[in-house]
Amino acid sequence: MKEKEKKKKIKLYAKRTKDKGSNYKWIIGITLWTFLISAFISFISDILLSNVGILIAFIILVIIILTGIVFDIIGVSVTAADEVPFHSMASRKVKGAKTSVLLIRNADKVSNFCNDVIGDVCGVVSGATGAVIISKILYSANIHNKTILTLSISAFIASMTVGGKAVGKNFAISQSNNIVYSVAWIIESLKGK
């Protein structure tokens, strides 16, 4: 009896250390991906913002904020979704069902990528975009008191981000299965092409 318990403990320990090893790989991988995604988005937004007017810069800012909100909705949906309905869909070979199950089973990683990586990168880039907009307004309007302008743009960015994510979280929790299925369907469609 003691031998069986000993083997059980060894298997459990081996599983735990294996999980820790894969967790370290995930942490290193996601850190590198964050660096690359952040550099790419910053580079693209810098190129787009350098030669545009204030109105287009505001539109780019709103797109960046909306991107963060959409990915936050996806991250929350994956953690709130129920895997069971997707099993019957997968058995009927419904497009997107297997990927839905995969997303839900990896909810911690998907949520980390969507909420933390994309969400935080969008937050940083939206702040930088706000700074570019401020400098464009100051240059074109020849404003000497920049405090009110800076506070207004910063407050706009913060309130749009926080308010949008608050509305998005409520929607994500109530429609989690539908959102996960839609994302999975899009992923499978893109994979096919």
TrEMBL record:
Keywords tagged on the record: Membrane, Transmembrane, Transmembrane helix
Top-level lineage group: Bacteria
Transmembrane parts of this sequence: 26-48, 54-81
Record-given protein name: CNNM transmembrane domain-containing protein
